[in-house]
Design a protein that fits this description.
There is one protein chain. This protein has 445 residues and is of the alpha+beta class. The chain has 2 domains: 11-235, Endonuclease III, domain 1 (Orthogonal Bundle), CATH 1.10.340.30; 246-437, Alpha-Beta Complex (Nucleoside Triphosphate Pyrophosphohydrolase). 35% of the residues lie in helices and 10% in strands. It has helices spanning 11-17, 23-35, 54-64, 69-82, 86-91, 94-101, 108-123, 129-133, 140-151, 160-170, 177-187, 194-207, 226-230, 336-342, 417-432; strands spanning 246-256, 262-267, 278-279, 297-305, 309-319, 332-333, 402-406. The strands form 2 sheets. A 4-stranded antiparallel sheet has the order 3-2-7-6. A 3-stranded mixed sheet has the order 1-5-4, with helices on one face. Strand 4 and strand 5 (309-319) form a beta hairpin. It is globular, with a radius of gyration of 27 Å. 36% of the residues are buried. The chain binds iron/sulfur cluster. Iron/sulfur cluster binds next to helix 10 and helix 13.
Length: 445
């Protein structure tokens, strides 16, 4: 896409016409003029003709929350190609947005982006820090970054990289050092070129004052840097002790039709981990490993890292639901009354005796259940009535939508990386035939 170029009258004159008072800011800006990183959302400090776009800056800052810049670049390109303007984004469906977001993680950001786009399409783009702060998904850092970068207004943005620079330069220490950084950053703020200054600090933290092996000899702040003067700059900042990740355990069920051309999935209600994305039916995630289900073939165990959780997920596979008595592959399941019509009474209770959520209402978890047939037998399998996504106690059932999805169209649905891995795992074990040899009960890894 060709970026629209408009003159930015502020940019070319401010630095030269108003001498900077503060040495810190002056050093940082001079360094930035020669060493800035190039990104598709960024305007070079040497480009005096182009004004930054608030829309593009906002998209990039939302993507950069929790995600590294090199990962964001291809996502940003695809996003802007698909939604070149705010109105394009505001008129899109949330599924279209989530499809472009899949793999980037922290999907709540995509929901916030979509909601904020609708608000801005109606009310206009904010012109102040407070206006940005009032939008969904925007906190003090993001509001300040957008205000400074896109609108060149005085605003203090402090992210992890910037915090590290200040901590080392000023030797900030002690239990409360983080809370003092904003004040220090405000004191040192440049008198002008606030957008460039913010981006300069981001770049300095990311490419010079790195967590490990800071390149102090290339740093514009080396002469006055407290941490450098001690000879052990990486002692700063004081490490913040993180709590250990909790282990959680669960099962996920990939059910194909008998031709293995469709797979059953459902949309997750918005909110919570992976909210709004499509997923396979599964158990809840527990602190203790839940018992293995019967009636499925074991495909493998995936270990997935979330911010606070290490999830151990067993992938189970089944197929052959096409021949069910009620409903067809074209059916969609939108609420409990729809689904209950498809089920006989014995399958309606989603909890077993131990309070474990059953994977499908049509499955049971009796440990003495007979072994199921292996996949490559020619004998047709007995096919239970089609399943529905397992309800969890906290879900709003009206939002659940179960659907048979053709495998060659799964890519049109927003899936988390975890669910993509689950599908890959299931497909590869089915197509390789290893599923036929899998034990029915397996140890957790
Ligand atoms: S001199 Fe070294 S420690 Fe100090 S701010 Fe620069 S890179 Fe960081």
């Amino acid at each position: 896409m060709v970026m629209q170029r408009t003159a930015n009258p502020l940019k070319s004159v401010q630095f030269r016409s108003r001498p900077l008072k503060k040495a810190f800011a002056e050093h940082v800006l001079r360094w930035y003029d020669q060493n800035q990183r190039t990104f598709p959302w960024r305007i070079s400090p040497n480009d005096h003709e182009t004004a930054p776009s608030p829309y593009r800056t906002w998209i990039s800052e939302m993507m950069l929350q929790q995600t590294g810049a090199s990962t964001v670049v291809p996502y940003f390109h695809r996003f802007i190609q698909t939604f070149p303007t705010l109105n394009d984004l505001a008129q899109a469906s949330i599924d279209q947005v989530l499809v472009l977001w899949q793999g980037l993680g922290y999907y709540r950001r995509a929901h916030h982006l979509h909601r904020a786009a609708k608000i801005m399409a109606h009310q206009g783009i904010p012109l102040s820090y407070d206006g940005w702060l009032a939008l969904p998904g925007i906190g003090p850092y993001t509001a300040a970054a957008i205000t400074a970068i896109a609108q060149n207004q005085r605003a203090v943005a402090v992210d992890g990289n910037i915090r590290r620079v200040f901590s080392r330069y000023f030797g900030m220490d002690g239990p409360d050092w983080v809370s003092h950084v904003w004040k220090k950053a405000d004191e040192q703020l440049a008198d002008t070129r606030w957008g460039d200054y913010t981006q300069a600090l981001m770049d300095l933290g990311a490419s010079v004052c790195k967590t490990k092996n800071p390149a102090c000899t290339q740093c514009p702040l080396v002469d006055q840097c407290h941490a450098f003067s001690t000879g052990t700059p990486t002692k700063w900042p004081t490490k913040i002790v993180k709590s250990q990740k909790k282990k959680q355990f669960g099962h996920v069920y990939v059910v194909f039709d008998d031709q293995k051309e469709h797979v059953f999935m459902h949309a997750t209600p918005e909110g919570g981990v992976l909210g709004g994305l499509w997923r396979f039916p599964g158990s809840s995630w527990e602190l203790q490993p839940p018992p293995d289900p019967t009636g499925y073939d074991f495909s493998g165990t995936l270990v997935h890292l979330f911010t606070h959780i290490t999830l151990h997920l067993k992938v189970w596979v089944d197929w052959g639901a096409r021949g069910k008595k009620n409903g067809s592959l074209d059916d969609e399941y939108t609420n409990p009354s729809d689904t209950s019509m498809l089920l006989s009474d014995e399958y309606k209770n989603p909890l077993n005796d131990s309070g474990i959520l059953l994977p499908h209402p049509f499955k049971t978890m009796h440990s003495d259940a007979p072994p199921k047939e292996l996949p490559h037998t020619s004998q047709p399998k007995e096919t239970p009535p089609v399943g529905v996504p397992q309800p969890t106690p906290s879900q709003d059932h009206d939002h659940i939508l179960g659907r048979w999805i053709p495998l060659n169209r799964v890519h049109e649905y927003p899936l988390s990386r975890l669910m993509q891995n689950v599908l890959n795992q299931a497909r590869s074990s089915v197509s390789s035939g290893t599923i036929a040899m899998a034990p029915r009960h397996t140890e957790w890894v």
